[in-house]
Amino acid sequence: MEKKLIVDVCLSPHLYPVYHKDDHIVVVIDILRATSAMCTAFEHGVDKMIPVASVEEATEYKNQGFLVGAERNGIALEGFDFGNSPYSYMTDAIKGQTIVISTTNGTQAIEAARNAYKIVIGAFTNISALCDWLQTQDRNVLLLCSGWKNRFNLEDSLFAGAVAERLSAGGLFRTGDAALAVSSLYSQAKTNPYKFLHNSSHAERLAAMGLKADIKYCLQVDRTKVIPVLDGKHLIKLS
Amino acid sequence: MEKKLIVDVCLSPHLYPVYHKDDHIVVVIDILRATSAMCTAFEHGVDKMIPVASVEEATEYKNQGFLVGAERNGIALEGFDFGNSPYSYMTDAIKGQTIVISTTNGTQAIEAARNAYKIVIGAFTNISALCDWLQTQDRNVLLLCSGWKNRFNLEDSLFAGAVAERLSAGGLFRTGDAALAVSSLYSQAKTNPYKFLHNSSHAERLAAMGLKADIKYCLQVDRTKVIPVLDGKHLIKLS
Fold first, then answer.
1. Is residue A68 part of a domain?
2. What is the pLDDT of residues A183-224, one digit of tens each?
3. Which residues form the domain of A29?
4. Which of A140, B87, B152, B226 sits CB 3.0–4.6 Å from A24 for a disulfide?
5. CATH at residue A121
6. With an 8 Å Cβ cutoff, is A200 touching chain B?
7. Which chain A residues touch B184 with a CB distance below 8 Å?
């Protein structure tokens, strides 16, 4: 069977315009921690999330009475309801709610790809559900790594490699150059991603903040079957 | 000994502004084939090269009587003296000459980094000379991959991985996230880079043009000790 679909990887939101095509599905990836936290929030019953790029927008929503998560440089901003730790979303208080979220990298990546055909949210915590769904869509897939302030990062690339490997193994997809590279990275790291990421500048940064539990959580696979998808300005549960 | 210097990788010229620092040495990389061809030209006695980003500038120089190499999309442009095949520079006709060169990716990368502290040219063909020199400079190093039209490519990343591995092994440098990733890529590919690159979109493109000999040449290590360095608008031999 000819592999007619392509899975490729865009390693920084800043590169998105170079990779944009009108018809591909974009998977936004911010493993530590925005997209992991989004999956957790939907798993715990949030109804909608509104990703916004700037703290100003987040503040505006907060003033309107919304629940708002806001994080910059790994730290939850004061005056808001959540940061981007998945643990902060494991509460009944979010059930049925709409939560606005703005983070250092993840929500910037969503913003960069806003004109894509479809944007879904990927994390190790929903990887199987995500890959199974992607394989039924008959669309090219672009894995968009949020990185760190538009720089390459290791944890998002690793996840992109995990997805590329699964899609390639599924027989429908061939890999672009970047997807091939991160697959290779993933194949070296997969026996112990936590140890591998120990070398990562961002993991180091988070560990220094005492967030090792967050990192371990974000590297767990298949905690949920939820796939958040962007619908206008809202993230909702893919049905 | 503390590793105080950093080697990192910028995977696309479009990302250069995100990685720019005032004081690092930038190694411009376009393995297939611009930077390989530049090393060859200097090895064969060219005096200076003038890298220019646009075909218009190249044409202007041509009209002024300069020898000019111009390539777009893998093909030597008509009306110029050279393309970017290293073989075209293996001639006594270039001895002592100044050659203007404009290519799809490599000269764009030089343009993107033009305000760097220092720009040198890297290729497998000068890798040992380059790494030895970098280890004497006491400067952070940024490996700038030219990629393909601002997209990630496999061959430039592979070379960046080879350099990052050597510098890291030398004991003076620690690796940034992207350098760590391409080192991992290189360690998987190094037993047979040609075979590994067979999967690369650009290698496929060149092979389809009948340029397998070029690819094989460009993957040979240490054909020369020359390191081209940018001095104002000219590339000259680092002395």
1. no
2. 999 999 999 999 888 877 777 777 888 888 999 999 999 999
3. 5-36+104-232
4. A140
5. 3.90.1560.10
6. yes
7. 184-185, 188-189
